[in-house]
Amino acid sequence: MICPGCKAENSDMLVNCEFCGQPLSAARGGEAQDGAVERGDEGRGQPTGEYGPSAAPGQGYAPSEAPPPTPYSYRQQPAVPGSPWYQKTWVYLLAIVVVTAVVAGIFVSRGNVKSYPALVVDNNPTLLDFYTDT
Amino acid sequence: MAPIVDGLEQQYKGKVSVKRINANSDATANEFGISAVPTYIFIDSSGTVTEKQVGGDPQKLEEAFRKAADQ
Asked: Which residue of B has its CA nearest to A110?
């Protein structure tokens, strides 16, 4: 069901829009005005027999099939002010910037490590003993 | 500290080498920024500094020798 306020798609079971909180009754009523019938109302107490031989008169509701998922229901939800942080683009941009900075810092710090191979004796770990003769 | 260093040099001979550097006359001392004596700097076999000790602490020095010998 489309919210008449923010145009976000909501479940048909909801009374209020889960994004902006606006009542969905307007949208629901609009559908009803177009001739739509509330789910489960069709055939109540008025069996017509058009559902096959198993639908005997007086058995009540006819089974209703769940509507197949349509591409429309998978579309990206519009960002509204109350949306959670993980739906905000800047969070992911910030995370990418931070990770890039950390990786760059590691490479730079590694590059600044000085080495003194000329002071190595006999290719062994070497102790440099600084002394003074005064 | 010199006798202690000599003893450790003999004890870890073939595993850890010792290079004595005059802090007053050798340019290496300036390169390492030596401001106090004794100062002991360990470098691994590739020449990278692994430990620096300022002052004479025989126990710390022996521990550093042991770690260097294990590399």
From this structure: B48
Tell whether ipTM is more than 0.90. Answer: yes
Cβ pair A127:B18 closer than 8 A: yes
Q: For the purposes of burial, counting CB atoms within 10 Å of the CB of B40, is it exposed (0-12), middle (13-18) or buried (19 or more)?
A: buried
Question: What is the Cα A119 distance to its own chain's centre?
Answer: 58
Q: Does B48 touch chain A (CB under 8 A)?
A: yes
* Domains along the sequence of chain B with CATH: 2-70 (3.40.30.10)
Residues of A in contact with B2 (CB under 8 A): 131
Q: Per-residue confidence of chain B (71 residues) as pLDDT tens digits?
A: 788 889 998 998 889 999 998 888 888 888 888 888 888 999 998 889 998 988 878 899 899 889 988 87
